[in-house]
Amino acid sequence: xxxxxxxxxxxxxxxxxxxxxxxxxxxxxxxxxxxxxxxxxxxxxxxxxxxxxxxxxxxxxxxxxxxxxxxxxxxxxxxxxxxxxxxxxxxxxxxxxxxxxxxxxxxxxxxxxxxxxxxxxxxxxxxxxxxxxxxxxxxxxxxxxxxxxxxxxxxxxxxxxxxxxxxxxxxxxxxxxxxxxxxxxxxxxxxxxxxxxxxxxxxxxxxxxxxxxxxxxxxxxxxxxxxxxxxxxxxxxxxxxxxxxxxxxxxxxxxxxxxxxxxxxxxxxxxxxxxxxxxxxxxxxxxx
Length: 288
Description:
CATH topology: Thrombin, subunit H
Shape: globular
Mean pLDDT: 84
Structural class: alpha+beta
Number of domains: 1
Helix content: 10-25%
Radius of gyration: 20 Å
């Protein structure tokens, strides 16, 4: 064989092994931070964030909104009424693997500590687990530049619910800044199914989290709440610590929600039914 061709063949083989090893390392890293969120009959995805040895899970707001109850109380000072929202406990499940097969699950209850609805807000929720389920934490993309269209991405989520937990799919940034009825989304081509809602989308090059997958109109046409919107939500709800481990954790300052009405109590400020028709799939799995 020609020495030059032989050398190129060896280099090509080594590069393939290197890229294969990096891809395997990335998939394992992202699957470590992926969990399934069980909220009543709904199952969605979530991403682990660990701060001060406590696990938190970032997910989509609509995954947990079936657990939300709005209560009204008389306000003796004003003579009117006050409304408070509360959530029932959420179950978070981590799939366990050994020697190339699933060997069981680990399940922990948690409480929703910050929430924003799909109809009125950012469609995000943060869950604080009652005990630690894993020593893992997502890393967020905090750069100012929006990733360019065509940038390679990965999604890890519970496709079709618990049975598809830790599914790893890939795609690209398809479009930035789709503005739909006052909401800004980015579009990706990562394969997603019911159960993917709340799962993370990551830069394949670095493994950094760039958005929360919330809605789709087909397996490879889906929308994410981009991290630049998550920053706004985190600031408003006083949970900036999830994005930056250098930020202090002050749970007393955390705001559960910002006076959003119950989903059936008022019409949203935009035509949400039209939005539903365009993007019909809230990517969570409802069990009958």
